[in-house]
Design goal:
2 domains; 2,3-Dihydroxybiphenyl 1,2-Dioxygenase, domain 1; eight-stranded mixed β-sheet; 293 residues; 19 strands; alpha+beta; binds fe (ii) ion; globular; 4 helices
């Protein structure tokens, strides 16, 4: 049973939070909720924040937050983490909108925060720009990916749902095929951040919205193999890849398989090691470098 059940927020270090904020508010369509100590707190529509923009090196993960599973107390979690050799700190009022959280630096450059689902000011869906449904997953690159995977799997109870060669591991704490994708490469960075659209026709509207904002769609839409999401990628002002997706596989942990879909070429669709040249199910390549973006 995973100790957490949902990705809560991603905090990015970006060179110019105010400039990045313009893109995330005007083009992506997030709602600004708070500014605090130079950091910008942005909401997709319900939570206090899904995304935090902090001043820092471009494409660095400042921290990633998850919501604590019901019945798992923060103090108990900290004890579990301690027993596994990870020193967790309980912090109060460490960031706006979160009264209490447990924080652990799993490996250098990867800080995890866990907290209970708390107050949600529900600023509403802004109606601007692309307007995603939610922030669904983050893909991170780490020189210590094996240790990260071990932490998420063995300590936090995540499921491994697919692999790409020996490079990338897809992991989930709920029924989404992945909420995090860990890439093993000798650099600490965020590979991409992914937002779910309401339906596949939204890909066309999103591409037109991006075009009006002077932003090119780099790749897609095309259907991935791992997760089978229909994905399209563009870059934010800090050169971070942003994925827009629909149609992601639904993972059923009790069966160790994804719910069958007509486009699956493997039935049952169990966790599978895909080849490095098998990023796209349609043969329309995603030309990004898995280790760089
Ligand atoms: Fe992705």
């Amino acid at each position: 049973m995973p100790k957490v059940f949902q990705l809560a927020h991603v905090a990015l270090g970006v060179p110019d939070p105010a400039q990045a904020r313009e893109y995330y508010v005007d083009t992506l369509g997030l709602s600004p909720v708070a500014s605090d100590s130079g950091a910008e707190y942005l909401s997709v529509g319900f939570a206090h924040h899904d995304l935090v923009l902090e001043k820092g090196d471009g494409r660095r993960l400042a921290h990633v937050g998850y919501l604590l599973s019901p019945g798992t107390g923060l103090d108990d979690l900290a004890k579990t983490l301690g027993g596994a050799g990870f020193k967790a700190q309980i912090k109060s009022d460490a960031q706006p909108g979160v009264a209490k959280l447990a924080e652990v630096e799993v490996v250098p450059g990867h800080t995890v925060q866990v907290y209970e689902a708390g107050d949600a000011p529900a600023p509403g869906f802004s109606g601007k720009g692309i307007g995603p449904l939610n922030m669904g997953h983050v893909a991170i690159v780490s020189p210590e990916a094996p240790k990260l995977v071990q932490f998420y799997r063995d300590v936090m109870g995540f499921h491994e749902t697919d692999w790409i060669g020996d490079l990338a591991t897809f992991m989930t704490c709920n029924s989404d095929h992945h909420v995090i994708n860990v890439v093993n490469a000798p650099v600490n960075m965020v590979h991409h951040l992914a937002f779910q659209l309401s339906e596949s026709a939204e890909h066309a509207r999103a591409a037109d919205t991006l075009r009006r904002a002077g932003i090119k769609t780099c790749w897609g839409p095309s259907r991935h193999t791992a997760g089978h999401n229909l994905a399209a990628y563009h870059k934010d002002p800090a050169d971070l890849l942003i994925e827009l997706y629909t149609d992601m596989d639904v993972f059923v942990p009790e069966l160790n398989m994804c719910q069958p879909r007509p486009w699956h070429e493997h039935l049952p669709m169990r966790p599978r090691k895909w080849g490095l040249d098998e990023l796209s199910n349609w043969g329309v390549d995603f030309q990004y470098d898995l280790a760089r973006g």
